Amino acid sequence: MERQIQVPLTKEDAAGLKAGDYVYLTGTIYTARDAAHKRMQEALDAGEPLPVEMEGNVIYYMGPSPAREGRPIGSAGPTTASRMDKYAPALLDLGLRGMIGKGRRTSGVKDAVMRNGAVYFAAVGGAGALLSKSILASEIVAYEDLGTEAIRKLSVKDFPVIVCMDSEGNDLYETAAAQYREE
């Protein structure tokens, strides 16, 4: 099924998404990769506030290339999500509603997705230039010293993703592989 969804995500919107759905996100999402996740975990461990509110938000695992003249961002392809798996459950427990990346997730992330009514989306790897066309604005909001790994606030319109893990724990990586083996 194809869906148009506003972000930040409501719990109801996340619950209505099913693994395999094609989704077009419009609104605000944030970027964060390994170094930013490590810093956020260090802040949590120290009892400090995070630089971005997690409740309802979506984090895109992406580090952009430099913007060409007249564009808000350069190529914006997803990075491998499993690199954030040791940090994701804590953020999901704080209300993070969605994640965008590529590749499989661990059982710990799956448990946290189900426990919190969240969703994991995949963006198409290798299509960063195409994905960047759905990004209308980009602003660094935290950890500027991390360069491309700084946390950015993105304004997106019709940003194309696929639901790979829904709030019930259905995992497209598992079901699609099983279906392929049956054919």
Describe, in short, the structure shown:
The protein is α/β, with parallel strands linked by helices and 183 residues long. The protein has 6 helices and 7 strands.
Beta-strand content: 25-35%
Sheet with the most strands: spatial strand order: 2-3-4-5-7
Total beta-strand segments:
7
Kindly, what is the distance between the CA atoms of the first and last residues, rounded to a whole number of angstroms?
22 Å
Summed up, the helix count is 6
Cα Rg: 15 Å
Which segments are poorly predicted (pLDDT under 50) over 5 or more consecutive residues? none
> Residue share in helices?
25-40%
Chain-averaged pLDDT: 94
What class do helices, strands and sheet pairing give?
A: alpha/beta
- The topology string of helices and strands comes to EHEHEHEHEHEEH
The major β-sheet equals: 5 strands, mixed, barrel
Shape: globular
Q: How would you characterize the overall build of this protein?
A:
This protein is an alpha/beta fold and 183 residues long. It is built from six helices and seven strands. It has a five-stranded mixed barrel. The longest helix is centred in the N-terminal third of the chain and has 12 residues, at 34-45.
List keywords for this structure.
183 residues, alpha/beta, five-stranded mixed barrel, 7 strands
Q: What topology does this entry show?
A:
Layout: E1 2-7, H1 11-16, E2 22-31, H2 34-45, E3 58-60, H3 88-93, E4 98-101, H4 107-116, E5 119-122, H5 128-132, E6 135-142, E7 151-165, H6 172-182
Parallel strand pairs: 1-2, 2-3, 3-4, 4-5
Antiparallel strand pairs: 2-7, 5-7, 6-7
